[in-house]
Structure formats: structure tokens, C-alpha cells
């Protein structure tokens, strides 16, 4: 029996039969990315990290990378149902990531959903209608 090897790369010409996905999951994400300052020393990357949690994974919306090697993960929590909020914050607690920033809409009723932020290990930033890069960048300096 002999070993055979198969090699694929970006230039192989294969095309997926799946339709391309949307670049952003929400208008909040799209607006945030569109307004990211091009001269910022922090580079914004879209959905590049898988965060393992027991029985699943979490894919944060963005990763912020600084030339000095620091990086943070950003998860935007916009308008969602109470069940989703409970699941999302349970995932954040299980992930136990200190490099995670949660951007949370002030319009969400976390108390009604049974979410307690006191035991969430992530940094939290709040936004009303639009999440601004300035708000997130300020949280990176904390």
C-alpha cells in the first residue's frame, strides 16, 4: 500500500456550491466596521476566532489586534430575545476570557432576561443606537 497526498490552496480554482454569506450579521456590526478609523493603530478583523466552551464554540464578531501583540475579542449584543441573552451570557461566563469585550445595547432588558453582569468576566461597553469605534477603543485602554 502506498501513501497518496492531495494538496489544495487558494489558487486551485475550486468553488463552493454554497451561496456566499452576508458580510455582517446586523446593521450595527456593518456600521461599526464601516466607521472603524483607518488610521487607528488597532486592526479590526471579522469573525476570525473560535472560542471553545463546553459542548460548543463561540465566534465573536470581531478581533482587535495591536502591532505590539495585544488583541481583544469583541462581541456585539444588540436586540435579542430573553432566551438568546441568557444563552449568550452563559457562554461568555463559560469561556472565561479576560480578553473579551461585550458591547451591549442599552435598549436590552437584561434584568428581565435574568442576566446578571456582575459575574461576567468580560469588559462591558454600552451603546444606545450605534456602537462607535471611539467607545470600543476607550475600553482597550482600561
What would your notes on this structure say?
The chain has 142 residues and is of the alpha/beta class. The protein has one domain (31-140): Trna Endonuclease, Chain: A, domain 1. The protein is built from 4 helices and 7 strands; from the N terminus they run αβββββαβαβα. The strands form 2 sheets. A 5-stranded mixed beta sheet has the order 1-4-5-6-7, covered by helices on one side. A two-stranded antiparallel ribbon has the order 2-3. The chain is globular, with a radius of gyration of 18 Å. The mean pLDDT is 88.
Set out the fold topology.
Elements: H1 27-34, E1 43-46, E2 51-53, E3 56-58, E4 62-65, E5 71-77, H2 82-95, E6 100-105, H3 110-113, E7 123-127, H4 133-140
Parallel strand pairs: 5-6, 6-7
Antiparallel strand pairs: 1-4, 2-3, 4-5
Amino acid at each position: 500500500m502506498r501513501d497518496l497526498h492531495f494538496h489544495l490552496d487558494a489558487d486551485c480554482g475550486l468553488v463552493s456550491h454554497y451561496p456566499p454569506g452576508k458580510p455582517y450579521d446586523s446593521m450595527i456590526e456593518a456600521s461599526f466596521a464601516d466607521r472603524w478609523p483607518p488610521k487607528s493603530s488597532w486592526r479590526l478583523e471579522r469573525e476570525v476566532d473560535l472560542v471553545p466552551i463546553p459542548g460548543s464554540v463561540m465566534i465573536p464578531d470581531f478581533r482587535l489586534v495591536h502591532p505590539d501583540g495585544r488583541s481583544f475579542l469583541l462581541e456585539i449584543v444588540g436586540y435579542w430575545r430573553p432566551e438568546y441573552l441568557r444563552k449568550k451570557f452563559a457562554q461568555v461566563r463559560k469561556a472565561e476570557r479576560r480578553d473579551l469585550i461585550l458591547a451591549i445595547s442599552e435598549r436590552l432588558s437584561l434584568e428581565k432576561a435574568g442576566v446578571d453582569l456582575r459575574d461576567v468576566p468580560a469588559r462591558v461597553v454600552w451603546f444606545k443606537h450605534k456602537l462607535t469605534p471611539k467607545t470600543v477603543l476607550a475600553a482597550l485602554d482600561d
